Amino acid sequence: MEKIKGFPEGFLWGGATAANQCEGGYLEGNKGLSTVDVIPAGKDRLPVMKGKMKMLNCDKEHYYPSHEAIDFYHYFEEDIALFAEMGFKTFRLSLSWARIFPNGDDETPNEEGLKFYDRVFDECHRYGIEPLVTITHFDVPMHLVKTIGSWRSRKMVDYYERLCEVIFERYKDKVKYWLTFNEINMLLHLPFIGAGLVFEEGENEEAVKYQAAHHQLLASAKATEIARRINPEFKIGCMLAGASTYPNTCAPEDVWKAMTRDRDNYFFIDVQSRGEYPNYAKKMFERLNINIRMEQGDEELLRNNTVDFVSFSYYASRLASADPKVNSQTSGNVFPTLRNPYLKASEWGWQIDPLGLRITLNALYDRYQKPLFIVENGLGAVDTPDEKDYVEDDYRIDYLRAHVEAIRDAINEDGVELMGYTTWGCVDLVSASTGEMKKRYGFIYVDKDNEGNGTLKRTLKKSFYWYKKVIETNGKDLE
């Protein structure tokens, strides 16, 4: 009988969250207003996230789920203790920029905000959990959106640089692993959530997005430069919303369409990992009449400060066709994709494709030849607790088991170098795309509904105990 292969020694098992979806305490501790704080739940959410509907302040007509979220701000000790009980080796979280610099352009940081993250990191280390920190995860101080237009302005690079100087110096002995931007390619699909962009009627939106992208890429390179100066032991990664795109048929036009879709998303990581703009992007800018405004030293900065590793989220594969008559798109996903008849889908229309994760791992590793890190993967589903508040979420276990098996194959059979795996929403939190609580990902159930009602009580799901066993056996026991 063939011996079951596990995962490499020191593999970083854990879970992932984001401040904008779990932290709450939205104006506590002198925190400033952030972009996510003005994104409502309901029908206006998507227009606001796309930058099509201008909402720069909160009103009384909408519900804003980020304001309390699951109140990690007050529950972090309890939550981290539960992560430790599962055996987490790492915990991915993000910083709220507006908690550290309430306006973004403040002369000095907010000490109360810095102390909060000190406490969070100390709590992690108390249990031997290594923090994996996203510097900015769909998070821009609203003051910078209102005063300079957020990432459409080059001034943002300076403000981001100041943020990095402060956090790298402050946490140089508490955090080793850093990600510069969460799903940086989301800027192209949800420009307000990705970069705080709001569009004016008649302007060239693609030009605005790619100029903002240039500023974020400069900021990422600057962060990498600063990190290596402050602590050479830091490991700096980039992060994309990952997934391979399949051609709808073997028609060459469909294959070409799928390849160009993938390139749209690889573009950011090509620059962050290779250090220069790829030729296909330069040609695209020519076709779209986009003139990226660069200054002297930009290309050198990008070239000399590439990332140490490439991280990504993976939920579903994608499908593309060159035929304009083929338009049976799936629901619920930010990325345009056709329905794949060979795959089942989640309740939100996200297609379940474990082998697609192995394909994506191989595609990224072949392309970049750098260590990879899966920092988001999971199943959003409606969980129904029984009379004892227990959720028997076998559907989530099945999803995760199949994806962990695919990861194990990519490592052992294909030779992919993978640093770790953090499931998304290890504790239930607010969905970024829909603003819902009922779209749950966690191993830990949080008593809260879509309207903000509930006790916030934490209870353990069946998947909690399953994942604990997976970590204990380093991926050998997935039953």
UniProtKB/TrEMBL annotation:
InterPro entries: GH, GH_1_N_CS, Glyco_hydro_1, Glyco_hydro_1_AS
Pfam families the record matches: Glyco_hydro_1
Keywords, in A-Z order: Glycosidase, Hydrolase
Entry superkingdom: Bacteria
Coiled-coil zones: none
Active site: 376
Protein family: Belongs to the glycosyl hydrolase 1 family.
Database matches in NCBIfam families: PRK09589.1, PRK09593.1, PRK09852.1
Annotated protein name in UniProt: 6-phospho-beta-glucosidase
Protein source organism: Clostridium omnivorum
